[in-house]
Write a structure and sequence with these properties.
Strand order of the largest sheet: 3-2-1-4-5-12-9-6-7-8
Order of helices and strands: EHEHHHEHEHEHEHEHHEHEEEHE
Number of helices: 12
Largest sheet: 10 strands, mixed
Oligomer: single chain
Helix content: 40-55%
Mean pLDDT: 87
Shape: globular
Radius of gyration: 19 Å
Structural class: alpha/beta
């Protein structure tokens, strides 16, 4: 199993360089094709109802400005991909808003790479619910990169995806299972892998008599030797699990977190589970999530 197509969202936000570096390192390590996409923020739905938008001089001027801005965001992508050793890559400017556009394009990719939402960025195509929407609507695993990385983390993002200390959050759910399966190409290249199970005694139906044991066997069959951590998450509130998980990330000096994404969509409203929301708000390392 490998990532043969990696889809990368590109804008001019603060996390752009780290996001490009990490996506390029993953594509290079997996021998995959890397597609960098910048979106204008003009919803495709407008074209469905008014296909001649470019015929209006005022609208055309504004559209051209947005397209030029998106094209500028792609600057340096080809050079960075080439420098990282990515053999196959392309870049596109797409007329759409970020969440819907990336979610559609994700149907033809194995992995999507985006950034954590940053309220300080003023990208016209990125809304506050961008990461949540992509997680819940793309149908693919999503690698989310913090918008603020330390210099050491930024330097590591330029290295091949092999030297990683990975923490897997496991609760026996279908979302967690999808995340683990989707992360196998990275887990197989990791230096060490820990599997964290919180409050196993409260979820015996999901975990069985030996919490985490079946997952460790599954990983071992894929060539991944993992260590099991049975932890107390303070189960009185679901949000406590998210905080406990991030504390474990810090204690282990993990540089990648793998977990399921929990929530649902209703029209354009995205409602996330407490743990997912906590991690998306407070993450300090890249997180691979799957819904």
């Amino acid at each position: 199993m490998s990532y043969k197509t990696v889809l990368l969202h590109i804008d001019d936000g603060a996390g752009r360089d780290a996001r490009m570096a990490l996506a390029a390192s993953v594509a290079q390590a997996c021998g995959g094709h890397l597609t960098g996409v910048a979106l204008t923020g003009v919803s495709r739905l407008l074209y469905q109802h008014q296909p001649d938008l470019d015929a209006d001089p005022n609208l055309s001027l504004h559209l051209n400005f947005l397209r030029e801005r998106a094209a500028r965001a792609l600057g340096g992508f080809a050079q960075q991909a080439s420098s990282a050793g990515v053999a196959s890559f392309e870049q596109r400017v797409v007329d759409d808003e970020a969440a819907g556009g990336i979610s559609l394009l994700a149907r033809y990719a194995d992995l999507v790479v985006i950034s954590q939402y940053n309220a300080a960025d003023k990208s016209p195509s990125v809304m506050r619910d961008f990461p949540a929407y992509v997680l819940l609507n793309s149908g693919k695993p999503v690698l989310i990169v913090p918008y603020a990385l330390s210099q050491a983390q930024l330097a590591q993002a330029h290295h091949p995806a092999a030297a990683r200390n990975v923490l897997v959050s496991w609760n026996g759910s279908k979302e967690a299972s999808r995340a683990v399966s989707a992360a196998l190409p990275l887990l197989q290249r990791a230096g060490q892998v820990h599997v964290a199970v919180f409050d196993a005694q409260l979820h015996a139906a999901e975990h069985g008599d030996h919490p985490g044991a079946d997952l460790l066997q599954y990983l071992a069959r894929h060539g991944v030797q993992a260590k099991l951590l049975l932890l107390d998450g303070g189960a009185t509130r679901r949000g406590d699990i998210g905080e406990a998980l991030l504390t474990q990330v810090a204690e282990l000096s993990a540089d990648l977190l793998v977990m399921g994404a929990y929530g649902h969509s209703r029209l354009r409203e995205t409602i996330l589970g407490g743990v997912t929301r906590t991690v998306l708000q407070s993450m300090t390392i890249p997180v691979l999530m799957a819904h």
